[in-house]
Amino acid sequence: MKNVRYGKCVKCGRTYAAVPDLTTCTCGGILDIVYDYDYIKERLTKQTLAARSEHTMWRYRELLPVEETTAPTPLRVGWSPLYEEPRLAAQLGLKQLWVKDDGQNPTASLKDRASAMAVAKAREAGAQVIACSSTGNAASSLAGNAAAAGLATYIFVPSRAPKGKVAQLMTFGATVISVQGSYEDTFELSKAAIDRWGWYNRNAAINPYLSEGKKTVSLEIMEQLHWQVPDYIAISVGDGCTIAGLWKGLKDLYAIGFIDRLPRLISAQAVGCCPLNRAIETGEPWHPMEENTLADSIAVGVPRNADKALSAIRESHGLTVNVSDAEIMDAQKLLGHTCGVFGEPAGVTGTAGVKKLCEAGILGSGDSVVSVVTGNGLKDVANAIKACGDPISIPSDMDRLLEAFSERGLSIK
Amino acid sequence: MKNVRYGKCVKCGRTYAAVPDLTTCTCGGILDIVYDYDYIKERLTKQTLAARSEHTMWRYRELLPVEETTAPTPLRVGWSPLYEEPRLAAQLGLKQLWVKDDGQNPTASLKDRASAMAVAKAREAGAQVIACSSTGNAASSLAGNAAAAGLATYIFVPSRAPKGKVAQLMTFGATVISVQGSYEDTFELSKAAIDRWGWYNRNAAINPYLSEGKKTVSLEIMEQLHWQVPDYIAISVGDGCTIAGLWKGLKDLYAIGFIDRLPRLISAQAVGCCPLNRAIETGEPWHPMEENTLADSIAVGVPRNADKALSAIRESHGLTVNVSDAEIMDAQKLLGHTCGVFGEPAGVTGTAGVKKLCEAGILGSGDSVVSVVTGNGLKDVANAIKACGDPISIPSDMDRLLEAFSERGLSIK
């Protein structure tokens, strides 16, 4: 990889050759992939990019830590739509608002970007098997992307994992190990198994390439905006890997001169689980929190990518905002009603945060904002149903329809 | 619309000016939109098409029945991925196999193509409200596409519609009427309400523009195959509108000289509900059937687009194949395991049909096939759960993991 210099520990600064199965520093710190931007600048221009017909995350190859000979992964990951939403902007009192619907990825979440990267690196490593522990989007995206590439997956889930998610994994042919115990127990068994069999490791905060996959979301946002930088980009934050990737992509583009300034990040967490935002707000180190939110994908009390995430928020002079579950479900309906975008609870938490910041007068008519929706609402139908109430239920009879409309106070034109 | 000549009844041949709110013929027949292919040929070439950056269904404007001034609808509909699947082809004994994953549309089904067209035509008609009856996907796609365009929707679903689909509708802000009865009962109530209130009608087989939206799936398939015609295109069939649209797109391309022959269609229905295939197989008129299949989107006992669908299958010298629910769920796992594509039961019925035809020796090593997956499996997680069986369930203990692997005959490398 001529475009990559090395992996560098974000804690102690030690560097490592960027081998495909790179994990963490001996000090325990997470590694960051460091690029040779001079090399990249000579090879990637806005014009060469605009001419490419590859509309996936792999159109940004020069900025990705893969060998030049590594083939794109099979599923169409990335290049999700960025919708300008003037009606919602007006409703919230913003100058401009765009929604990046990353629930439009193959397994319906932004995590496909990280899992596709894991599959590409596993192939470089000559691995036939990839493993991870997760109950949610990381697992399903890994299972799907690996299946398409002909790689086997071993996925460790805590026994409380919802059956629907397990069904998705099993449909993709993963070997699913449901561990009778806590998430920590699950993680430990996955670690022991990965150590024993040498499987390729897709555990977040262990594998430094994952956030490099995720950063393609901001590369796309900026290209889709024709390199016009918005004032803010809002995203939900759980483990921290996603916001770290988002920021990395922006810094890459700044480093190679594609954008001339950096937006500020908006880190949105749930009130019931906001260890990273709390650290920013108090100026103290982060401490574990309970996981009291229905937004399961960001219910992470012990974030494993805390260092990278906190740096990203601070470096960008970012805003933090914590929203209640009710505010999350309101945002889900708002995006559905106004934009035709159906996000899962964690997926719409960024938008909930934007709305709250608008209502507080912190964001307003001078501001342009991109809000990233990180996962599709079909992943968690139960919560959407709870938020929406029941439909009108009647026999096939016009009188009953008229009655029902009247009972609900609907005046039909 | 200079590219459109008129709507023509498929039964009696009577023609109608192609106004935006065009419905059916006075004789009760469905209308087909007839184009001026000479006009289109002068304006659309493979080169002009290849140069377009619009990667949605609207890239085929010259072949679509919309005014030149009509804006594309807001959501990114169409240009779903077409995956070549050499491993699955080898497994089934086919020369070549591609999977068109139309579950990657904004509301996760092919029906987005028809609903986007309905929204475009409703705007041309100056309508503020659109209504339809649907087993699910037509409804959710209409609700989503209309919400994004700022139009209201009234949607009639049978009470058996999966919860995921209803949750989508409510999140998109539709007024949902869940009808206690069959699809037929649901349709009748929607018809009465549409007549009463004059809403824009998005019912299949009433609105002749819908299959014109759906035809974009075959326009895309052929462009993605660089105009190399496969031997067969397989798709699941319920109401009949989709296969009719698929065929229309192919005939359009043939008429303007983009392809030099036509593929044969494979019409896949469920054994428990196959009125159209039965008509083809017996050579008799179609008769209603019960709706005995878990593939809810094609559980249509009284298909409303029978005329167009039967013509399409016959004109293409098509094959029919009826599959059991067990074969449908096997196909779901097969696509998941081998391709990383998660389809809903009706969505994978085409692939189930291809598999069955391969096993029967009707398709084989000389054949190239495109199989269209019409909807995402996340729409119906309950059935996927039933099909998948249970994961390995153990405490966090390496010995127990080894035991479990050994019991299942898994040899781990």
Task: Characterise the protein shown here.
2 copies of one chain form a homodimer. With about 425 residues, chain A is an alpha/beta fold. Among the domains of chain A are: about 80-110 and about 210-390, Rossmann fold (3-Layer(aba) Sandwich), CATH 3.40.50.1100; about 130-200, Rossmann fold, CATH 3.40.50. The first copy, chain A, is built from 16 helices and 14 strands. Chain A has helices at about 35-45, 45-50, 85-90, 110-125, 135-150, 165-170, 185-195, 210-215, 215-225, 240-255, 275-280, 305-315, 325-340, 345-360, 380-390, 400-405; strands spanning about 5-10, 15, 30-35, 80-85, 95-100, 130-135, 150-160, 175-180, 200, 230-235, 265-270, 320-325, 370-375, 390-395. In chain A, the strands form 3 sheets. Chain A has a 6-stranded mixed β-sheet with strand order 4-5-13-10-11-12, sandwiched between helices. In chain A, strands 8-7-6-9 form a 4-stranded parallel β-sheet, sandwiched between helices. Chain A has a 3-stranded antiparallel β-sheet with strand order 2-1-3, with no helix packed on it. In chain A, strand 10, helix 10 and strand 11 (about 265-270) form a beta-alpha-beta unit. In chain A, helix 13 (about 325-340) packs across helix 15. The radius of gyration of chain A is 21 Å and the shape is globular. The N and C termini of chain A lie far apart (about 65 Å). Chains A and B meet through helix 5, helix 6, strand 8, helix 7 and helix 13 of A and helix 5, helix 6, strand 8, helix 7 and helix 13 of B. Strand 14 of chain A pairs parallel with strand 8 (about 175-180) of chain B, so a sheet runs across the interface.
